[in-house]
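Encode chain A's predicted structure.
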Amino acid sequence: MPYSVQSHAISHYHLITTTPFSYRSGIKYFFLKLKMAPFTISTLPSLRIGHFRKPPNCILPIHCSTAAPSPSSVSIRSKAVHFDLKTYWTSLMVQINEKLDEAIPVQFPQQIYEGMRYSALAKGAKRSPPVMCISACELFGGSRLAAFPTACALEMVHAASLIHDDLPCMDDSLSRRGQPSNHAVYGVDMAILAGDALFPLGFQHIVSHTPSDLVPESRLLRVIAEIARCVGSTGMAAGQFLDLEGGPNAVGLIQDKKFGEMAECSAVCGGLLAGAEDDEIERLRRYGRAVGVLYAIVDDILDARLKPEGDNERKNIGKSYVGVYGIEKAAEVAEELRAKALEELDGFEKYGDQVLPLYSFVNYAIDRSFNVDEASG
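Encoded structure for chain A:
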């Protein structure tokens, strides 16, 4: 049965209703009963999504939209369920890993470069930013050769941000993806330097390795400006600030800035490289932000469901939707984000099957039908 849903769009700062929410069926039941089984998006029953009451003074990044997908969009959504994302993603990861290995050779000072490689080439990294960048570039007919340098730069920037996030003065985490965090291996001083070095290396790599016959300078400048915006004081840095200083009232912006920014930037950079129109870039921007936050919320839901009952010692419990609102209401936010991401992709229906990978990323955010890092091994 084709998927149908009353869609909800995402605003960065406001929730325009406080009426209690209700369900007919669907994702709420799925998340409550989740046992890590695959979940097929296209066969979801129709949902009547309402809204939940927020705690006093809390602001959530959601408002209502009622757009319905066209018949052709429904057809593409259905095809996306059968798209072989596992093969697509893992084959791209092999190429990206090779390009990253070449981009960060060990040289003097050796210890800094070893620290850079430790995080940028880390086992268990899903390479989500570069894969999304390449997918967005190919959507508009761009070449992978044109996208690889920016894709690698995005992974460098992502790795640098994680190095800094894990530091004792930030999130104070001794592990990342099941491995010791960078500062736990190389020390805080070297970890700071490794992160500091990865940021500019990414920009340098874009400028020095992007084929000039495939991407004009004007597009490269927009790509560099987009990445700088993403990591800067109004982007991911703002997210980390709010993570340190904000309370439960800031949960929407924390998720938006810490997780939405990187996915948004990745999708937008791919479109810019391929010469997408401005309105298409803005559609990619909204899609990427929705997907980035969706992944984070589903991760939190999965983590919460796997925690033993009575275990309330989760770190940063007030900095996630699950921590502030609980699993049921976080699942509602996830459903709205999924609907928003799919709605944005419907605007690319004229590109046909080229949009299938981007649809599949949304489906994968929910069903987690394979383990990316294990599949790539």
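Residues 1-66 have pLDDT under 50 and may be disordered.
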